[in-house]
């Protein structure tokens, strides 16, 4: 029993660590953009496809937040929503950035859609395996 608890704890720590790593990676892109250090081809791609990046990153973060919340029994989704809203609101005071309600909506929608996709996939996976074992 103790070995199972250790495995479960290790799994939860891995998932939460992965979630934190991805959040920090996305946050570093935001910081680089705010500092004007995101230039060249990557900077041009981000500028040209801004809303796509917002939704894509938020979908991934939302799915990982759902997974991390389930693994750790902690409200990672609420924490993620706090971070994405705060990140967008801070842009009001940064001269190198521009606040956008559309960006915030894409962030929140992407996060919630990622969580819903994660839960739908988990539900479908559970239903499929429960039918195949009976």
Question: In words, what does this structure look like?
Answer:
This is VanZ-like domain-containing protein. InterPro entries: VanZ-like. The chain has one domain. The protein is 84% helix and 0% strand. The protein has helices at 2-34, 40-48, 50-72, 76-90, 101-133. Helix 1 packs antiparallel against helix 3 and helix 3 (50-72) runs antiparallel to helix 4 (76-90). The mean pLDDT is 82.
Task: Summarize the entry for a quick read.
With 134 residues, this protein is mainly α. It is built from five helices and no strands. α1 (2-34) runs antiparallel to α3, α3 runs antiparallel to α4 and α4 runs antiparallel to α5 (101-133).
| Count of separate structural domains | 1
Number of DSSP strand runs: 0
Mean pLDDT: 82
Biggest β-sheet description: none
Shape: elongated
Low-confidence stretches: none
Radius of gyration: 18 Å
Keywords: Membrane, Transmembrane, Transmembrane helix
Protein name: VanZ-like domain-containing protein
Organism: Vibrio nigripulchritudo
InterPro entries: VanZ-like
